[in-house]
Recover the amino acids of this structure.
């Protein structure tokens, strides 16, 4: 189907030199940038209190799972740190004993 030029709106071309038309062009760009392009959706149903409560319950369960994971991670880290501290205390005692034996040899 071919459209005739009679059905279309005429193209408006600015009159005058192109340098004078740039101000109007940039003004139209600024106006179109300020315009709202995304409109809110009006036909979406609002969540009911039961849905909100279910979402809150899911969020709480997710937080509980994360907390349990963090607690397990902290327990493992605590065991590792306790073994490191135990090793350091043993090395400290060995160092003290070696100093004591060295002092006995000197005296």
């Amino acid at each position: 189907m071919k459209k005739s030029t009679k059905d279309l709106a005429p193209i408006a071309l600015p009159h005058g030199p192109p340098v004078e038309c740039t101000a109007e062009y940039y003004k139209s760009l600024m106006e179109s940038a300020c315009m709202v392009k995304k409109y809110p959706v009006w036909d979406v149903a609002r969540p009911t209190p039961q849905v909100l409560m279910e979402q809150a319950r899911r969020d709480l369960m997710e937080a509980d799972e994360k907390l349990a994971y963090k607690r397990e991670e902290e327990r493992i880290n605590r065991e590792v740190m306790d073994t490191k501290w135990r090793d350091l205390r043993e090395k400290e005692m060995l160092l003290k004993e070696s100093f004591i034996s060295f002092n006995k040899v000197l005296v």
Notes: The radius of gyration is 39 Å. The mean pLDDT is 85. The first helix runs from residue 18 to 34. Residues 97 and 103 are 10 Å apart (CA to CA).
